[in-house]
Amino acid sequence: MTEKSSSSPAVAGRGPIIDFMDPRQWHSGMTAKEGFWLEARSVDGSSVTLSPEPVKEGRRLTIPQGCQATLIEKNESMRPEPYTTQSKWEIILTEGSKLNHYKLVHEGPEATHHSFLEVDVRKSASFQSHVFLFEGAQIRNTIHVRMTGEDADCLLEGLYVGSGKRVIENHTLVDHQKPRGTSRELYKGILDGQSRGVFDGLVIVQKEAQKTDSAQTNRNLLLSTEAKAVSNPELKIFANDVKCKHGSTIGQIDAAQLFYMRSRGVPLAEARRLLVYAFASEMINQVEVPALREILFPCLNLATSIKK
After folding, report:
1. Which terminus, N or C, of the chain has the lesser number of Cβ atoms within 10 Å?
2. 172's torsion region: left (phi>0), alpha (psi -120 to 50) or beta?
3. Cα dist. 77→3, 105, 108, 306 in Å?
4. Any residues with CB less than 8 A from the CB of 267 and at least 6 apart, and which?
5. Cβ 128 vs Cβ 72: under 8 Å
6. Strand-pair partners of 32
7. Under 8 Å CB-to-CB from 185, ≥6 apart: which residues?
8. Cα dihedral 31, 25, 92, 101 sign
9. According to the model, what pLDDT value does residue 291 have?
10. What is the 3-state secondary structure (H, E, C) of the chain?
């Protein structure tokens, strides 16, 4: 059975997370629909009304030529019983358009969350994705980006937080099909308890995609000896004039940094919290919507045991 989550959990020291969706906090032109918020502006800065069209099991959104848009998805609930949330988007970025996409997952403790995002980035268009996966028993985030135009640009960033026995999977594909495309990907995991985090990322550079510039990185921070991270960054290159790299790291909190802070009188729990926040802040600080950025650190605090 598939259901949409709608109720809102409280953040420590604040009201429900949904409070940040208060229309008074948005730029003019922002409109709200069930489960997502969308703002778009034309080249001259005037507001543009965009309406996603329903497709099988999801929605399709086309960003007009030269338009700049922001799309925010949120999936959240306090429901204690098991349930399933599914989300599917198809997005087309026409020539010279730009989209900033944000996704926040803060589901119930027994929830299963599956999301699939497919993006077509055409000539000189730019797509940016910022994903924050904080709560839910099982979370699967899948993103496929096809760079079908010359000089296309793509940025994929994600922060996933595991505690208890949570399982979080990230599966990404960036397919460079035309020349002079640029892609950057950085996913970070913070894993505590007996949680498990998976990053499975593939970058393909087709034969025609000469002058491609691509970098892919996955970094994982383990907060317990029972947490586990699986990292599989992969490149498939069929062109001969490209600049591509990938890599991954899995490790615990740096003992030297922890010792330094303890020697300066910082309590152990606070020192751990500060180091975890430093690890996560790179991702959160990229958020260009102040109201959303403001609640991400409290969400991070709820999702991990570092508040203890």
Report:
1. N
2. beta
3. 11, 9, 5, 22
4. none
5. no
6. 37
7. 155, 156, 157, 172, 174, 201, 203, 215, 216, 217
8. negative
9. 85
10. CCCCCCCCCECCCCCEHHHHHCHHHCCCCCEEECCEEEEEECCCCCECCCCCEEECCEEEEEECCCCEEEEEEEEECCCCCCCEEEEEEEEEECCCCEEEEEEEEECCCCCEEEEEEEEEECCCCEEEEEEEEEECCEEEEEEEEEECCCCCEEEEEEEEEECCCCEEEEEEEEEECCCCCEEEEEEEEEECCCCEEEEEEEEEECCCCCCCEEEEEEEEEECCCCCEEEEEEEEEECCCCCEEEEEEEEEECCHHHHHHHHHCCCCHHHHHHHHHHHHHHHHHCCCCCHHHHHHHHHHHHHHCHHHC
Place of tokens 């087709």: 206
The predicted structure's pLDDT at residue 302: 64
Distance, CA of 97 to CA of 59 (rounded, Å) = 19
Name residues of the chain where pLDDT drops below 50. Answer: 1-32, 307-308
Report the amino acid identity of residue 212.
Answer: T
pLDDT at 133: 96
Q: Which residue has the tokens 């599917």?
A: 88
Task: Give me 268's structure tokens.
Answer: 């152990």
Contact 85, 3 (CB under 8 A): yes
Buried-state track 216-240, b at ≥16 Cβ within 10 A, e below 16: bbbbbbbbeeebbbebebebebebe
pTM over 0.90: no
**Could you tell me if 102 and 287 are in contact, meaning their C-beta atoms sit under 8 angstroms apart?**
yes
Write the burial class of residue 61 (CB in 10 Å: 0-12 exposed, 13-18 middle, 19+ buried). Answer: buried
Whether residue 166 contacts residue 199, with contact meaning beta carbons closer than 8 Å, is answered with no
Task: Show the tokens assigned to 259.
Answer: 């010792």
Question: Per the structure block, which two tokens stand in for 248?
Answer: 């991954």
Structure tokens of 28? 């003019």
Neighbours of 88 (CB within 10 A): 16
